[in-house]
Amino acid sequence: MKQYKSFQQLLLQLKPTSHVREQLREIAILIYKIMVIQTYHLLWTAYLKSGTGQLILQVQTQSLYSLTSSIWPKQVTAMVSMTNTNSVNENEIYLNFVNKHLLKLNAQLRSYKHNLNIKANHYSGYTLAIQNCIETYIEQHLQSFRLNIEHHIELLHYDYHIRALKLEYLRHCSNEYQKQQLKEICQTKYAQEMAEQESRLIKQQMNYSNLPNQSTLIDSIQSIDIRQQLFNEYKEIAVQSRANLFHVYMKSIEDERQEYRKKFEDQMEKIQPIHELTDDNNPKLSPIMIQLIDQRCQKITERLKCIYRFKAQITL
After folding, report:
1. CA distance 276 to 283
2. Closest residue by Cα to residue 132 from 144, 143, 120
3. For 97-130, how does the pLDDT look when each residue is reduced to its tens digit (9 = 90+)?
């Protein structure tokens, strides 16, 4: 197991005799595997729910788009495409693929639990308190892994909404012009929000980052007074240099954000009924199509905020 030294310390806390230490280690490995499988099971269950239209809980308020559509996550479609299958019924392929993987996870889970029961029963000194202690230790070391999976599942919900909104919008489309409007406006909104979130993250990182408190070259100087004087000068230069680089970088991001913000506002203004010109080739967008674009842009914004909240959580 990883963190083996820490696990040895845990064993010392439990105070087992030397001949049962290996048994406890084997039990801990099985508990670790069970927890990992259970976490992956949550992810693949979310894949299945998305593909069978059960991912989003129905709300009382009426939605502009269907929340029960079959939308398979891109992670699933990418994995299936690698199998080079020739079947025509894609939905059936994805369903079988995910179900088979869930069956495999269930089989592994049953096997690990069975082995755990056998090993626990063979160790007469094994108690619920010992198991709780081991589980707590493992949960602490799996925290990062679980957070990543939970974040992945959270993004699946945003992806479902974004794709469902697109499907509903395309159902109302009558030509390529209308399709292009959705694509271009959403791309602009994505770029604008990316710049916004990147700016916030950089500011947070600057607040949390620390300058080095020493220099190998300066530390080699024998005189304490000279060493301190040089370090103060070194630190002052480092602070100023970092401030200058930060200013240049933030100005670049801010200019980009303002550019995309203006472009997005212009694009949304252009498709409003009072401004949009109508001809046979480019019929105007209906009010519901404009609402669908607006809602899709909101979900794109929410998704990016979710991503950058997670980035801040794991880096700051």
Report:
1. 9
2. 120
3. 999 999 999 999 999 999 999 998 888 777 787 8
